[in-house]
Amino acid sequence: MTITDSAPGDVRTGGRLPHVRVAIIGAGFSGLGMAIRLLKSGKDDFLIFERAGEVGGTWRDNTYPGAECDVAALLYSFSFAQPTDWQSTYGKQPELYDYLRDCADRFGVRPYIRFHHELLGARWDENLRRWHIETSQGEYTAQVLVTGSGYLSDPVVPDIKGLSGFQGKVFHSSTWDHDYDLTGKRVAVIGTGASALQFVPKIQPRVGRLDIYQRTPAWIGPKNDKPNGRFRQWLFRNVPGYQKFRRGYNQRGREILSFIFARPAMAEKTVQGMMVKHLNKSVPDPELRARLTPDFTVGCKRMLFSNTYYPAIQQPNVELVTDGIAEVRANSVVTADGREREVDAIILGTGFRATDRPVAQRVLGAAGTSLAQAWQADGMTAYRGTTVAGFPNLFMLLGPNTTLGHSSQTVMIESQIAYVADALEQMEKRGLASVAVHADAQQAYNETVQKKLQTTVWNAGSCASWYLDDHGRNPSIWPGSTAQFRKQLKRFDLAAYQLATVSGAEYAQPH
To answer: From the CB of residue 444, how many other CB atoms can be counted at a distance below 10 Å?
Structure first.
């Protein structure tokens, strides 16, 4: 690892700031994947700044009962690091957490991680052409800044009247309080998204009463989760190409969904039809079934999968509440119809700040404005989901319009990592100090993406989802296949960027 002195640091100490070529924010799938790629390329002039005390990102933080992935483990993992001992089709939280820690160890990433270093701010220095980074444990500079903080890292706490004055226990599913014993308690669950679908069946047998506050029902399909027995694990280990084939088969099957979701009428006939059958089979009560039936096209909101949620909410100690919450009182929740339900604990299954990312407020570009300010007028935008005009040498992994509604985010992450790696190679080869995407290239790219989104289920499915921002624009979803995205990011396209040498002179555009 090469860490050199940088520009003068704190004048009070007379010190100079440590400098690296690449600073990576976050040690989840994105940050670890980027670090591993650098090491595989023989580059060790980088650091990872992680706010927590361990790697793992969302799979470290989300420890609620039943936490697991909705994408098959063979696909929801790095293509270059394929374990043969997955216990079942879908990875569970402890398994995925162990997997990421193992990757950090196996590929030698840990020496490059600075734990408990929360990003407080990053500012682009136009004169020195580098990033000045402030963390909770000190300051650094870097030529290139890569953010790997993701979009499921900062929870949403709903603005409900009286919630802050509740005298019982309150916690978000992503910060589960395992010390609080739910046995026999009266529990209110607010929200019925992916997390709630997983933890509700786990806590239902333990609690005294469970009130589930549903604002909007979700389309839920069956989850074909099967144990990987000894024979299948033997096949993974001993039959050349078998595991790769199974991974590819799963990926190609999911690519078909991107084609279907671009055609809402087709989605209704196929995928939605499957989910209707699952609902009808699982919920015999027509009144309850009606309250669980969405009025939007499947895929408009995130698709969910569970074999246990419908049975759990039909148990005698569970009530599905579809009236809106008017307020929370000291020991109760009051709905819009005036009914008051006493509770001991409130669990928030209210999701994350996907279109309002806190990291955007902490990153300042060439004009001294933050990403959040740059996105204020039109919402989150980026070029190829990775670079942003006015922010030289900034690369965002899982940036705007890289979220998938049909496949694995790890495929998108690896595509972006390849793009960043090629950018670093091109910068080194041509002696470039900075690359800054042209605003017109970013605008043209986003116009194309938004045009494609207009007729898909994500925009035209008649729902309000977390995919959309406050302007009704979709800064989240990638509207094509992962193969199309991977092809676009296979090479760093220098022609879309303003290039500058170490001296600050503009570099002649390549031909």
So the answer is: 13
**pLDDT surpasses 60 at 226:** yes
Looking at 3.90.1200.10, 3.40.50.150, 3.40.640.10, 3.50.50.60, the CATH number of the domain 163-227+232-348 comes to 3.50.50.60
Cα–Cα distance, 274 to 78 (Å, whole number): 30
- Span 439-451, mean pLDDT? 97
CA-wise closest residue to 397 among 1, 22, 90: 22
Specify the residue for token string 């116009």.
447
Query: To which H or E segment does residue 122 belong?
Result: strand 119-125
Report yes or no: 292 and 278 within 8 Å, Cβ to Cβ: no
- pLDDT higher than threshold 80 for residue 221: yes
Q: Which tokens in the block code for residue 38?
A: 């650098």
Task: Please indicate whether the domains covering 4-154+353-501 and 163-227+232-348 agree at the CATH topology level.
Answer: yes
Amino acid type, 474: N
**One-letter identity of residue 467:** Y
381 near 430, Cβ under 8 Å? Answer: no
CATH of domain 4-154+353-501: 3.50.50.60
For residue 44, list its beta bridge partners. Answer: none
Domains of the chain, by residue range, sit at: 4-154+353-501, 163-227+232-348
What DSSP character marks residue 478? Answer: -
Per-residue pLDDT of 297-313, as tens digits, reads 999 988 999 999 999 99
Task: Read off the pLDDT of residues 341-384 as tens digits, 9 standing for 90 and up.
Answer: 999 999 999 887 656 678 899 999 999 999 999 999 878 999 99
What are the pLDDT digits (tens) for 102-140?
Answer: 999 999 999 999 999 999 999 999 999 999 999 999 999
pLDDT for 152 equals 66
User: Dihedral angle at the C-alpha atoms of 351, 355, 359, 363, nearest 10 degrees?
Assistant: 180
Helix and strand element counts for the chain (H, E): 15, 23
Q: At what angle do helices 93-106 and 29-40 cross, to 10 degrees?
A: 20
Nearest to 83 by CA among 255, 254, 305, 246: 246
> Per-residue pLDDT for 411 more than 50?
yes
The residues facing 171 across adjacent strands are: 347
Choose between 9 and 182: higher pLDDT. Answer: 182
Smallest CA-to-CA distance from 346 within 172, 478, 85, 475 is with 172
Tokens 């319009």 map to which residue? 401
For residue 273, count other CB atoms closer than 10 A to its CB.
Answer: 12
For the record, the structure tokens of 13 come out as 């100490």
Instruction: Supply the pTM of this predicted model.
Output: 0.93
Say if residue 136 is exposed, middle or buried (CB neighbours under 10 Å; 0-12, 13-18, 19+): exposed
